Amino acid sequence: MAPSLPTIVLAHGAWHTPPNYQTYIDALKAQGFPVHFPRLPSCSGASPPNASFPEDIVCVRNVVKPLAEAGERMLMLMHSYGGAVGTDAVEGLAFTDRKAAIHLLYLCAYILRPGSTVFGIVQEAGMAHLWPQFVDSAADGSTFPKDPVLLFFGGVDKAVVDTALPYLVRSPMSAFTAETTGSAWWRVPVTYVFTQQDYSVPRMYQDIMVEKVRQERVLLRTEEYETIHSFFITRQEEMVQAVVKAAQDGRNPSDG
After folding, report:
1. 10 DSSP β-pair partners
2. What angle do CA 205, 210, 212 make, to 5 degrees?
3. pTM for the whole thing?
4. In which element (H, E) is residue 174 found?
């Protein structure tokens, strides 16, 4: 008998909120997946920020841990900054540790080795000097893209952009400089989806991160798309199928 579909836990990107992903979530649910999608506390829009990376980890952990304790098979679906959050949140909840996470799916997301930071990748790529050109960093520690359409929605239909923009919020700079601790990708099968036209997490960043993980002798399955950062909008059906493929990946541990 074929295994039941895993439960999806989606960790979203910085500056975003759940409504930005709603049509994608609806499409995943229509495919039959149960979906949990907590709003990260750092994306409250508060200025000055009242939460950061540690609170985001706790938020997602508070979703995945009860699911693990209930015996759920989970697929972690992570976009952008959510990759760092989701990886740390699922630490110790790999299927090999207990009946829990069976696959990690990174959508142009930060897949980091322990002790790394999001902004560290920006620096390693030699792009830190361009940060002020693209991101407004306020004195209170909050940040917001200077041109969110360019960073997230380039080429997307104007009506879709107009719907999405009001749900973007300020995020704390401290979330991008906080060090990660997790390495669940050591024990859980990984799929990484590259985006070629990404201004938010440029392909250069993605290559740096994936190469570092590969240096740890981790076997990643990869997919590539000639598209932008918010490709859960522009390539929605393909991103649903990416989840289906990850759920059916032969590397996944069985629940038998």
Report:
1. 77
2. 100
3. 0.96
4. helix 174-177
